[in-house]
Specification:
By secondary structure, chain A is α/β, with parallel strands linked by helices. Chain A contains seven helices and eleven strands. The chains are: A alpha/beta, B alpha+beta. Chain B: One of its GO terms (biological process) is DNA repair.
Chain lengths: ~250, ~475
């Protein structure tokens, strides 16, 4: 092998090597930019996707949510008021309240909250705080402070409209304070596209409540199902064979 | 045993406390208003040629950007009280001498500090932190210490000879003798205290006046000099004069922080907490404005108070510029050690009472409450609201199935509903002015909402609650 040939080979090798390095580098920058845009999911994110959960107190709902409510995060609930939507949350919240004595914050409920109702659900009234403030910005401020304070288990609020960045802030605050924010919306599409951990859509049903899980991070969609309130609140169900105890028949009023 | 006294003279208290507030050098002078003479001036004013006892006119001619403030004896006395307050935990016997001097009984403290040197180091450390200009000296009598401090002797010593020789060199104009006597003594050739001390006291009394002999006797320790000592106030009360008038409520936070720092020092030294502080803002040409800030959990830290105060200031709108402010903290109680639970899973940054105070500061005290049960069968009197988390829940048994929301006032039922359950009769309250006789039903409208409705004896239907 003469001298010129060996130089040629070395040159060839070095060229291939450079091309390789170039490819790797551009791959890396591409990957980094994709990561930045959150378009790549890597397996190490898995534990974040399925946070520890909180039993709801309803077996079907636990199954559908694979464990229960998220331990921390933002849960948005689209529902008409007065169809039993608060009752869906209360068994879990009461359990959590008795376990670690943290506060339950209710920010500007649509109507005054009935103390008897909370008491009847087994919630210690000294752990409930109601904040009545009309300004939307103040409501958001209070919710964020409560979430991140670490002394609140959950915050319930009825906001008008939430922005993408506001929900992001709530998520961070909730993680910091290990608390859950439940937001109630009357409009069906008020929370579409927001980065919430869980979104439910509720509809009235004769035997309880119809639940449709519209969004849940890290899971496949579940078909809508109906939860029965028959065992917990039999009076709030319309069972066909139940006989009304007033004059023996249903009275139409209007 | 011969006593030892320490005297601290603060020549420019008012100026120093003003200069602490500002960062850049400015020519500021304090003018005594009756004679219009400069009594205190900032280094910048001194550089432009202004000297003590100069006329206001002359001073104004020397410096164009001159800031002139009237001398206020009261503010100096307040500052002096604050200094005495800080020194009190180093030394026990402090007495005020005029608006700008502190007299300290040193000999009783020497055993504790094992010598004058250590005692003075401890005092000096405290004084340096306060950033006030001061002159100091020791003497065997209160008046001797005072004279030497005014002279600017700057020696701490218990050496009798050293003190006496320094005392003898003191000029007579520094003494408490009135101008007329000083002039009289000067005329007969007595310029310094030493020359006067050479004359026996009975002769001075005969030749000059009884007062002069009395004064001299006190300086030399031949006559007793009773001193009344300072006792710290039980409450924190602090006034701060502002260098500029402030119209923007957000800018008030900086001077407030200084006051809160002082409050923190006050409370920390006593190991106490306070639950409420009161700011009184002194406005120009308008009545004073009081701002109450509460912390449900007692607090002493300035940073925590600052958070709460800034929330209050957001809501405050000023009608007139603020010229000064007072911080007052009434009730203070002994700090209890915190008892966090070892087994609670997650300890947050804030306790529930701290959170409550923060919410109250932001949205107002009446907007935050906790539900409680009242002892009455009428639903509207059964569900109550209290402002404090600490109110214990009353042991009232609940009734089965009650609505989640209770309307503040029952509204006439206008919708078509189907009755699902009922009735439940509530007939009570005949003893007061709101008797109730109602038949309650659980009803459902065609949209699927669960209502709590009632019927009056007059067959009128009302909506009272919603089952959520």
């Amino acid at each position: 092998m003469n001298c010129a040939e060996s130089t040629n080979i070395i040159m060839h090798i070095s060229f291939d090597f450079l091309l390789y390095i170039h490819t790797v580098l551009s791959m890396n920058t591409l990957l980094a930019s994709l990561h930045k845009k959150r378009l790549v999911w890597s397996a190490k994110q898995a534990p974040l996707m399925q946070p520890p959960s909180l039993a709801t107190g309803f077996t079907e709902l636990d199954d559908a949510l694979s464990g229960g409510w998220p331990e921390s995060g933002v849960v948005s609930i689209n529902s008409l008021s007065g169809i039993g939507e608060l009752r869906l949350l209360l068994p879990a919240l009461a359990l959590r309240n008795t376990q670690n004595k943290r506060l339950m914050i209710i920010i500007t409920p649509p109507y005054p909250v009935n103390a008897e109702f909370l008491h009847e659900q087994g919630i210690d009234l000294t752990d409930v705080l109601i904040v009545n403030v009309n300004a939307h910005q103040s409501q958001l401020w209070c919710a964020e402070q409560c979430l991140k304070s670490g002394c609140c288990a959950c915050v319930l609020m009825w906001p008008e409209k939430l922005q993408h960045h506001q929900v992001k802030r709530f998520q961070l605050a909730a993680q910091q304070g290990c608390s859950v924010l439940f937001t109630f919306h009357a409009q069906q599409h008020a929370t579409a596209g927001l980065p919430v951990s869980l979104a439910l859509s509720l509809e009235p049903a004769s035997e309880g409540i119809k639940v449709n899980i519209t969004k849940r991070i890290g899971s496949w969609p579940v078909p809508p199902f109906t939860l029965s309130y028959q065992s917990r609140w039999p009076k709030l169900t319309q069972s066909a064979n139940a006989t009304p105890d007033y004059h023996g028949f249903k009275e139409q009023l209007g | 045993m011969q006593g030892l006294w320490l005297y601290l003279h603060f020549p420019q208290l008012q100026l120093d406390s003003l200069l602490k507030q500002q960062t850049q050098e400015e020519a500021v002078i304090i003018v005594e208003t009756s004679r219009m003479q400069v009594v205190q001036m900032s280094p910048a004013a001194y550089e432009s040629g202004i000297r003590k006892h100069m006329n206001l006119g002359a001073a104004a001619a020397l410096c164009e950007a001159l800031q002139v403030l009237p001398y206020e004896e009261k503010s100096e006395r307040d500052t002096l009280k604050e200094i005495a307050h800080h020194l009190y935990h180093i030394t026990s016997d402090i007495s005020f001498s005029g608006p700008s001097g502190l007299l300290i009984r040193a000999h009783t403290m020497l055993n504790l500090y094992q010598g004058l040197k250590h005692y003075w180091l401890a005092l000096q450390h405290q004084l340096t932190a306060l950033e006030f200009t001061y002159h100091y000296a020791t003497g065997h009598t209160p008046l001797a210490a005072k004279l030497l401090a005014l002279q600017g002797w700057h020696h701490i010593s218990d050496d009798n000879e050293k003190i006496t020789s320094a005392l003898k060199k003191c000029a007579l104009r520094l003494t408490d003798l009135d101008n007329k006597s000083v002039q009289k003594l000067n005329r007969i050739g007595i310029q310094h205290l030493g020359e006067l001390m050479a004359i026996p006291l009975p002769d001075i009394a005969k030749r000059f006046s009884h007062d002069m002999a009395d004064y001299l006797g006190r300086v030399m320790g031949l006559l007793p000099h009773p001193v009344s000592f300072y006792h710290p106030e039980p409450h924190f009360h602090h006034y701060k004069e502002l260098l500029y008038e402030i119209t923007d409520s957000q800018r008030l936070l900086t001077p407030i922080t200084h006051l809160l720092d002082a409050l923190e020092r006050f409370l920390r030294l006593r190991d106490k907490l306070t639950t409420q502080i009161c700011f009184t803002l002194h406005l120009r040409d308008a009545p004073e404005l009081s701002v109450y800030v509460g912390a449900q959990q007692g607090e002493y830290r300035a940073a925590m108070w600052k958070n709460l105060v800034s929330l209050q200031l957001e809501k405050l709108s000023l009608t007139a510029p603020v010229t000064g402010m007072t911080l007052h903290a009434e009730k203070a109680y002994i700090r209890q050690p915190e008892r966090p639970d070892l087994f609670t899973t997650k300890q947050g940054e804030l306790s529930r009472l701290q959170l409550l105070s923060m919410l109250q500061a932001k949205v107002g005290e009446n907007a935050v409450f906790s539900p409680r049960l009242g002892n009455d069968h009428r639903p509207e009197k059964h569900s109550l609201q209290v402002n404090s988390l600490n109110t214990p829940a009353s042991a009232v048994s609940a009734y089965p199935l009650r609505p989640s929301f209770l309307l503040p006032h029952p509204v006439p039922l206008t919708e078509k509903v189907t009755i699902e359950h009922g009735p439940e009769r509530i007939q009570t309250g005949w003893w007061d002015d709101a008797p109730a006789e109602r038949d309650y039903f659980i009803a459902r409208n065609h949209a699927g909402q669960w209502y709590w409705v009632f019927r009056t004896p007059q067959q009128q239907w009302y909506l009272h609650g919603i089952f959520s």
